[in-house]
Amino acid sequence: MVILGLDPGSLHTGYGLVERSGSRLIVLDHGRFSCPKTQSVPERLATLCARLDQLLDQVTPALVGVEAPFFGVNARSLVMLAQARGALLARLAARRLPIVEYSPAEVKSTVTGNGRADKTQVARMVGLLLGFGTGKLPPDATDALAIAVTAAQRFRFDQRVRGHGE
Description:
- There is one protein chain.
- This protein has helices at 41-58, 75-94, 104-112, 119-130, 139-161, and strands spanning 2-7, 12-21, 24-34, 63-67, 99-102.
- It has a five-stranded mixed β-sheet.
- By secondary structure, the protein is of the alpha/beta class.
- The two termini are 12 Å apart.
- Strand 1 and strand 2 (12-21) form a beta hairpin.
- It has five helices and five strands.
- The relative contact order is 0.20.
């Protein structure tokens, strides 16, 4: 099962693709979609969607995990984040891909066992879980891979809770 994790942002959106094979997770790809600061908001959203389309033209994930908004940021940042998330979610929905959303605390808790873990702890655990070692990945990709790991680890549980079984 191939799972895509997305960490949305208006300038940088991290992505991570993992494959779950039994209890093993294998990294297929990771990185980030970046937009020039000089672009207008509509141009940035178009760029993010075009980059997502390029990725989805190469691989069709069985599940997409997306980070839910974090409300600790300022209002302007929250609006920009919401616009980026909305554009990406609409593109995923248009392709009829199943989407799950997780709060930052859920992702941190799943990956590290601590919902208040800092970015260094998350990066360390993602590196250990996926065989990268520590400190080897860019932050956007680390966060997206953490979301993908969360979706992979919670998939069976989430299915049971929804009454679908696996």
